[in-house]
């Protein structure tokens, strides 16, 4: 049964638990560093001197949101955790697979447009090749952890916030807006980068509502992040993988292409497949 205080208490519990676990894992990493001799830097956004190890640690910490959000749905809202996934009370794997194919096309074409736009403006798009020796260890970590990191963020910002706080209102738009704002605030982008990540959050929230689940948002989020981290891994500059800041406005053109292709493609397939959008 819905009570006004359940989403608020659950959100507070998620935040406190996540911060506590993050600190605990940081302490564990420090102890491991002392005993193994793995150097730590503890400056800026970096914790480990090894950039691949640092990326894996940070992605793993973010992934902790997934069990915390699922647990909060069961403990505080007294509902099946699977209800966060979709109106079918589970992840619809066939639909997720279709969304991943659309996401792959959208991300590749968006990246191509972004690279062309940046080069025409005299900006280096960052495509370099450092060799398999540097690429393989990084891409293994990326492929193993990014899907969980991306899913965790979607369950938190699109699943928990939209469903939890959307229950107070007849329209989902305020909850979509809050989720997108929280998503943007959790990143370190500035300038046009804030516009990009906020627009990404709005699109993901809208698609979650229109398709009745998190499959489409997870598909684009994971594909986009794998591609972004993969480009950095190929260049061998993993030290900058988690750095966020200013984004050239020209890059937004490629993002707009990506968003349009994915949004339109997903809606067309969802309509043809008669994807369930409401609880039964």
Describe the protein in words.
This protein is an all-alpha fold and 280 residues long. It has helices spanning 5-36, 51-63, 65-75, 93-120, 132-166, 173-185, 192-211, 215-235, 251-273, and strands at residues 40-43, 46-48.
Report strand %. under 5%
Low-confidence spans: pLDDT under 50, at least 5 residues? none
Number of helices: 9
Mean pLDDT: 90
Q: What are the secondary-structure elements, in order, as H or E?
A: HEEHHHHHHHH
The percent of residues in helical segments reads: over 70%
How far apart are the termini? 17 Å
> What is the overall shape?
globular
Biggest beta sheet attributes: 2 strands, antiparallel
Give the tally of β-strands: 2
Structural class label: mainly alpha
Radius of gyration: 19 Å
Q: What is the spatial order of strands in the main beta sheet?
A: 1-2
In brief, what are we looking at here?
By secondary structure, this protein is mainly alpha-helical.
Topology:
Blueprint lengths: L4 H32 L3 E4 L2 E3 L2 H13 L1 H11 L17 H28 L11 H35 L6 H13 L6 H20 L3 H21 L15 H23 L7
Antiparallel strand pairs: 1-2
């Amino acid at each position: 049964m819905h009570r006004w205080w359940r989403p608020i208490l659950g959100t507070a519990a998620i935040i406190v638990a996540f911060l506590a676990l993050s600190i605990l894992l940081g302490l564990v990493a420090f102890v491991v560093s002392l005993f193994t001799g793995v150097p730590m830097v503890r400056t800026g956004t970096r914790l480990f001197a090894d950039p691949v190890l640092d990326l894996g640690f940070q992605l793993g910490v973010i992934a902790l949101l997934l069990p915390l959000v699922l647990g909060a749905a069961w403990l505080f809202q007294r509902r099946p955790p699977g209800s966060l996934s979709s109106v079918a009370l589970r992840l619809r794997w066939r639909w997720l697979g279709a969304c991943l194919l659309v996401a792959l096309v959208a991300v590749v074409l968006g990246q191509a447009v972004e690279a062309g736009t940046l080069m025409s403006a005299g900006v280096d798009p960052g495509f370099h090749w450092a060799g398999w020796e540097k690429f393989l260890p990084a891409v293994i970590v990326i492929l193993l952890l990014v899907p969980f990191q991306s899913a965790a963020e979607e369950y938190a910002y699109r699943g928990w916030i939209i469903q939890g706080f959307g229950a107070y209102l007849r329209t989902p738009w305020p909850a979509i807006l809050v989720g997108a704002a929280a998503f943007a605030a959790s990143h370190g982008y500035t300038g046009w980068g804030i516009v990009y990540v906020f627009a990404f959050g709005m699109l993901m929230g809208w698609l979650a509502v229109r398709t009745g689940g998190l499959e489409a948002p997870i598909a684009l989020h994971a594909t986009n992040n794998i591609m972004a981290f993969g480009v950095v891994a190929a260049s061998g500059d993993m030290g900058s993988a988690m750095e966020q800041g200013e984004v050239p406005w020209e890059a937004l053109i490629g993002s707009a292409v990506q968003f349009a292709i994915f949004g339109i493609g997903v809606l067309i397939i969802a309509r043809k497949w008669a994807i369930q959008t409401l609880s039964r």
